[in-house]
Design brief:
globular, six-stranded antiparallel β-sheet, mainly beta
Length: 118
């Protein structure tokens, strides 16, 4: 699973109905329905992202976005887990993204494993 498992659009900001969203919206995975809420994030500023994996189990990451509304990279670092299972990955992990309208595609750093969010 790519980080994408938690970032997909199911609301968030829009441009008034034309079918576009900002990168800093709520995103819902088209694979498993998980939701990533990026509404408090900004470019080049660390933000605490919560990624739930099961009821009362998940992780918190320092999350940073570099790039533009249309493409760039996400960085996850300093993982802290909550709940009985530790899903943390040590170090800093990079993911690449592209956004078109209300569709966000997130891929691992090698662009070999991608996930779509709406």
């Amino acid at each position: 699973m790519v980080i994408c498992g938690t970032i997909t659009a199911c609301g968030g900001k829009s441009d008034g109905g034309s079918g576009t969203k900002t990168i800093f919206s709520k995103w819902t995975s088209t694979v498993d329905g998980s939701v990533y809420d990026l509404t408090g994030a900004q470019f080049n500023v660390s933000f605490q992202l919560t990624i739930p994996y099961a009821v009362n189990t998940g992780v918190f990451y320092d999350f940073t976005v570099t790039g533009t509304e249309d493409s760039g990279s996400f960085y996850l670092a300093n993982c802290t887990h909550y709940g009985p299972t530790n899903y943390c990955v040590s170090g800093t992990t990079q993911y690449n993204y592209t956004k078109s309208g209300a569709t966000l595609t997130i891929c691992d750093g090698w662009n070999s494993n991608c996930e779509v969010f709406k």
